Structure formats: structure tokens, C-alpha cells
# Entry
Amino acid sequence: MYARTISIISGKGGVGKTVITANLGIALSKYRRVIVLDADLAMANLSIVLGMKPKVTLHDVLMGSATVEDSIYDAYGVKVVPTGISLDGFEKSKPEDMFKVIREILENCDILLLDAPAGAERTTIIATMTSEDCIIVTNPDVSAITDATKSRIIAERLKTNVRGFILNRYKKEIKIKPDKIEDVLRVPLLGIIPEDPTVSIHQTEPFIVKDPYSPASKAIYNIAKQIIHEEKNWEHSNSLKRIQFALSRRLS
Ligand SMILES: Nc1ncnc2c1ncn2[C@@H]1O[C@H](COP(=O)(O)OP(=O)(O)OP(=O)(O)O)[C@@H](O)[C@H]1O
Ligand SMILES: [Mg+2]
# Structure
């Protein structure tokens, strides 16, 4: 059995991908064996959001100085492959080797969540093309929505199923309504996470742990349930096919 791989992507940076990946990973891990991987090789911060201080990271694996197994940690019940925060580690890593890392991880979990970098950089493309599904995160502002549309188009070109979008940092007084954003993006709305000051205050303790019953946590649990519910429609062998497809189209 190979894991289902889902990348969390966005066009604009800073919309909440890392926070959502961490919290969604924790929620999903209550039901399945989940690994969350920080695919943001240059500006990694998943480990910070999860309050970790890892010694071995994905950078070490990509540099060939550690095994994948050495880089898997446990944080709040979810398995995590963190990436180092040093630029030196980034400069020495080979992004294309992520394909091999992901192939190894696929055999050790049911769901693999990839926290992708924003935009359309090389690592974003690698994360998206190795995933069967992706989820777009956006904020309710025109520039984030415009860039989210570009992410959808890129994912479609890479033949990755755009499962839907999460509207993060939503406030009732905002004029752009969620159904209007759904019309513009042309992908289903999976959930709305409100603007919540406690999200940024508890930087090293995920909000789903701090307050499992807050509106933000309830929205995350609801998205997790949708993901679990879809399982019967996906084939476990597809993940390996995707990675083989990705390897055959390796970027030069
Ligand atoms: N719902 C929310 N309410 C309030 N603050 C939030 C919310 N979601 C995220 N934030 C804050 O927004 C900032 C950016 O979040 P995050 O790092 O997860 O974004 P990102 O999309 O991963 O960014 P990057 O593109 O740089 O990787 C963080 O300070 C985070 O605490
Ligand atoms: Mg991030």
C-alpha cells in the first residue's frame, strides 16, 4: 500500500500553508498514519510552527549525510520530516532528490502532506507533480485569489487533481464572499478558517492542540474528515505511479 500524497500550495506567499499543513496533519493523524514533510527547502518553517528543534533534517537527507528514517520526528502525534532553517543547508541540497525521499516515505504512511513553497519555483513544481491531489490555500484578497488561480492552472498542467481550496484568514466584514471566490477559482471550497489572533500568538503550539473546539480547529477537523471520506475513491497504487511519472520527467 502506498500513501496518498497531497500538497498544500498557494500562489501568494504567507497565506497560511505551513500553519494549515501542521494543524491538518495533526487532525488527520487521529485517524490515519500521517507524515507531514516540509517541502519548502529555502524558507522552511514547519518545524518552528510545531515547536521542534530537529538535529537531522531533510537537508541532511538531500545532502546524503542522513537517512530518511533519521529525519522523521513525532510532534503532537503526527510524524514530521522537517527541513533545516539554514540557507547553507538549502544551497547544498539537491531538490530533485526529493522524489526519492518521497518514494521511500510513501511506504511508511497512509497520507503524506507536503508543505510546498509559494509560487511556481522548482520545489513547488516538484511537490505538486509528485502529488495526486493538491489543496490551494488563499486569503480573501484580490492578489491572493489571482495568484491562487495561477496555482490551479499550474497544478492542472502537471495533471495533479486540484481537490479544492481553503479560505484562510476570513473575516465576516470582508466584501468578497466565499461563494464568489469559489466561482473565480473554479475549485470546491473545502473550508473557511477565520482570522484568529491566537493562531499567530501560539507560534509553537498548533491551534488545534491549544483549542480543539475553536472555529479554526473545527474547520480543520471538517477538512480532515472530507479527506478521509474520499479514501474509497482513490487507488493506493496511484501514488507510486505518480512518483514514477515524476521521476521519468525529472527536471534538469
Ligand atoms: N487564520 C489565521 N489567523 C491569523 N493569523 C494567521 C492565520 N493563518 C496564518 N496566520 C499567520 O500568518 C502568517 C503566515 O502563515 P504561514 O507561515 O503558515 O504562511 P505560508 O503560506 O506557509 O507562508 P510561506 O508562503 O512564506 O511559506 C503566520 O504568522 C501565521 O501565524
Ligand atoms: Mg510556509
Q: What stands out?
A: The two ends are 30 Å apart (CA to CA). The chain has a mean pLDDT of 91.
